[in-house]
From TrEMBL:
Homotetramer. Interacts with PCTP. It comes from Caenorhabditis elegans. It is found in: Cytoplasm, Cytoskeleton, Spindle; Cytoplasm, Cytosol; Mitochondrion; Nucleus. It catalyses: hexanoyl-CoA + H2O = hexanoate + CoA + H(+); octanoyl-CoA + H2O = octanoate + CoA + H(+); dodecanoyl-CoA + H2O = dodecanoate + CoA + H(+); a fatty acyl-CoA + H2O = a fatty acid + CoA + H(+). This is Acyl-coenzyme A thioesterase 13. GO terms for molecular function: fatty acyl-CoA hydrolase activity. Belongs to the thioesterase PaaI family. InterPro entries: ACOT13 (IPR039298), HotDog_dom_sf (IPR029069), PAAI_dom (IPR003736), Thioestr_dom (IPR006683). Catalyzes the hydrolysis of acyl-CoAs into free fatty acids and coenzyme A (CoASH), regulating their respective intracellular levels. Has acyl-CoA thioesterase activity towards medium (C12) and long-chain (C18) fatty acyl-CoA substrates. Can also hydrolyze 3-hydroxyphenylacetyl-CoA and 3,4-dihydroxyphenylacetyl-CoA (in vitro). May play a role in controlling adaptive thermogenesis.
Amino acid sequence: MPSKYMQLAKEIIKNYGTKGQFGCVSGAGNVRAVHAEEGNLRVEFEVEKDQSNHFNTLHGGCTSTLIDIFTTGALLLTKPARPGVSVDLHVTYLTAAKIGETLVLDSTVIKQGKTLAFTKAELYRKSDNVMIATGVHTKAFPTVKKAN
């Protein structure tokens, strides 16, 4: 029986795969959850043509979007499950990933407080564990003021 975190992870991935949303354009629709626990989400996917640049490698913007999506997914696997809003996203690109290669994206919540959360991600090639990119993502939880 899948853990409650794995069930939540599959639902998060399903929602990001919705046509007409930017996450779907970035290829989140072909992602599979392979590990989920509180504050950690690991997914894998094959690089597809619509995720590539003119060199037939994973597009940097797609990489950033996937890191954004799945570090947020890791936050949704915590209590309270809050997605927050991005304050800072820093991605370091280390090498290219070719169309057809299977990649693993491991996202972790480093620290979460009342107003901020800090997350990190590692994107690597599954076949040889070569790191493709790393990311750190800061999210804020602003107070929502009700209109009069």
